[in-house]
Design a protein that fits this description.
- The chain contains three helices and no strands.
- Helix 1 crosses helix 2 and helix 1 packs across helix 3.
- The relative contact order is 0.22.
């Protein structure tokens, strides 16, 4: 799985939550800038699992950037 695939999937999940695509960039913070709450983080995790076919769990309390989340998803996807 490429980082572009992960980024596209995450961006798609966020836009389905109503986040404007223009607000999504590598340095945007998911919780502070996009104001995602823990329920929305779980929704994004479930959607990423559906989109990528890999069980994904984003930390609901973390204030990671979009890029941090992409890297975490790519790591989880590469773990056997």
């Amino acid at each position: 799985m490429t980082s572009d695939q992960v980024a596209d999937a995450l961006a798609g999940s966020l836009t389905e939550l109503g986040i404007d695509a223009s607000a999504i960039h590598p340095d945007v913070r998911l919780r502070e800038d996009l104001e995602l709450d823990s329920t929305e983080m779980v929704q994004v995790s479930l959607d990423l699992t559906r989109r990528l076919g890999v069980r994904i769990r984003l930390a609901p309390g973390a204030n990671d950037t979009f890029q941090d989340a992409c890297e975490a998803v790519a790591r989880e996807a590469s773990d056997p």
